[in-house]
Design brief:
The chain is α+β, with helices and mostly antiparallel strands and 218 residues long. The chain contains five helices and five strands. Strand 2, helix 4 and strand 3 form a beta-alpha-beta unit. Helix 4 packs parallel to helix 5.
Length: 218
């Protein structure tokens, strides 16, 4: 009986499947053999290493040393002292300057131990004015705090010569300068103040003082 074409195709397909299965088995067998060879080689190398170094013992662990905790941030003591000093500025309006003043008709002052040449040079403008503060128009308590902070900051920054404007009192009751005498008292109480003189007419005249500050200690 003749073989039909469809039957021939089925036989061809079956043979193709059989060849594919055979090739897959050969490939898996080859991979398994390669893996076994690799494991055998690794075991041989491990055995060789063990024989070479001999018996081993685990290392003893040293006792753990606890690390010191991180130190706390430093306390800004000087900053706190400065802030406290600002809050408790102790400049007095009743301070008796007659015991400390070396005053003259030109409204100058020099602390004990400061030569008269200092006030002469201040009055002549031989010191360059590095900064100034204008207290004109302030209330007495505002001016006192502002002047204290100004002198303290200027001294800390190493400034030597500053100008303090207190006004001439033209707008004050009785046209008398309210702050002028107080500013003199306050400046004399400040340890940073070495001397002061009335400013030249071009720098404020009777309405201002030129102040020499002590040098900053390094």
């Amino acid at each position: 009986m003749p073989v039909k074409p469809n039957h021939l195709r089925s036989l061809a397909d079956l043979k193709q499947v059989q060849r594919s299965l055979a090739e897959r088995r050969e490939r898996e067998a080859a991979e398994a053999a390669a893996h076994a060879a690799a494991e055998k080689k690794r075991a041989a190398e491990q055995d060789l290493f063990t024989r070479a170094i001999g018996a081993t013992q685990p290392l003893r662990r040293k006792a753990a040393v606890p690390l010191a905790p991180e130190p706390p941030a430093p306390i800004p003591v000087q900053h706190q002292l400065d802030e406290q000093r600002v809050l408790h500025e102790s400049l007095s309006d009743e301070f008796d300057v007659t015991t400390l003043l070396d005053a003259d008709d030109a409204m100058s002052f020099r602390r004990t131990g400061i030569h008269t040449d200092v006030t002469r040079k201040l009055r002549a403008g031989e010191w360059s004015i590095q900064r100034e503060i204008d207290l004109h128009g302030m209330r007495s308590d505002e001016a006192r705090e502002a002047l204290g902070a100004f002198v303290r900051t200027a001294h800390k920054q190493g400034l030597r010569c500053v100008r303090v404007v207190h006004g001439k009192g033209i707008g004050s009751p009785g046209r008398q300068p309210v702050l002028k005498a107080k500013v003199q008292r306050w400046l004399i109480q400040k340890t940073e103040t070495l001397a002061f003189v009335q400013a030249k007419p071009s720098e404020g005249g009777a309405g201002a003082l030129v102040v020499l500050l002590a040098p900053t200690r390094r």
